[in-house]
Amino acid sequence: MDKIKVIITNKQKEIKIPTGLRMLIRRCCNAVLTLEEFQGSVEVSVTLVDNGQIRDLNRIYRGIDQFTDVLSFPMGENGKYDTDPNTGAKILGDIVISMEKAVEQADRFGHSLQREVGYLTAHSMLHLLGYDHEDNGLQRLRMREKEEKVMLLLGLPGSSSYVIEDEDE
Questions:
Q1: Residue 22: burial class (beta carbons within 10 Å; 0-12, 13-18, 19+)
Q2: For residue 69, with 0-12 CB atoms within 10 Å meaning exposed, 13-18 middle and 19 or more buried, which class applies?
Q3: pTM score, two decimals?
Q4: Which residues, in sequence order, are CB contacts of 17 under 8 Å at separation 6+?
Q5: Which terminal residue of the chain has fewer beta carbons within 10 Å of its beta carbon, N or C?
């Protein structure tokens, strides 16, 4: 991989963006591309939004009128990407993260906001590279393994499980 340009835009005001989070997002994008042995220069856009904004995007682009944590908008298919005529970089696409949902999920799963945003970034980057998990099969498992490998590389390992324990048990 030659050069990576990650354009990060904060379009929400609900959650204060912690120091270092933008750098973490960039490192996460880089780690996924390195893990996947991606060749060439790339551009990725990451937009931080609130729940209302991501719900609107989910409804408009996926026909699902509900909140979600992250959306991916790939600009390529089958390894072919649009290129920036000025730089020659491959334009991978757009990642949209709901910061409100990220905070909620970090609390629910008992880990840091940094880990949650890193995980969502890794997950979305894999989508931009053509991975899918809609069939709940082998590709979902492969994505999960790659996401966790990136988290380990970044020093943000997860807990042993994403299962939420009932307090009554």
A1: middle
A2: buried
A3: 0.88
A4: 10, 48, 99
A5: C
Residue 134 DSSP class? T
Least confident of 20-34, 132-146, 153-167: 153-167
| Class level of CATH domain 4-153 | alpha beta
Q: What is the pLDDT of residues 111-154, one digit of tens each?
A: 999 999 999 999 999 999 998 876 667 778 889 899 999 999 99
Measured CA to CA, the distance from residue 104 to residue 155 in angstroms comes to: 21
Between 87 and 139, residue with greater pLDDT: 87
pLDDT tens-place string over residues 55-80: 999 999 999 999 999 999 999 887 78
Burial of 166 (0-12, 13-18, 19+ CB in 10 A): exposed
Cα gap 114→111, rounded to integer Å: 8
Q: Which helix (H) or strand (E) holds 81?
A: strand 80-83
- Residue given tokens 């989070």 in the structure block: 21
Give the DSSP letter of residue 166. Answer: P
- Enumerate residues 6+ apart whose C-beta is below 8 A from 104: none
CA 119 – CA 142 distance, rounded (Å): 14
Q: Which helix (H) or strand (E) holds 98?
A: strand 90-98
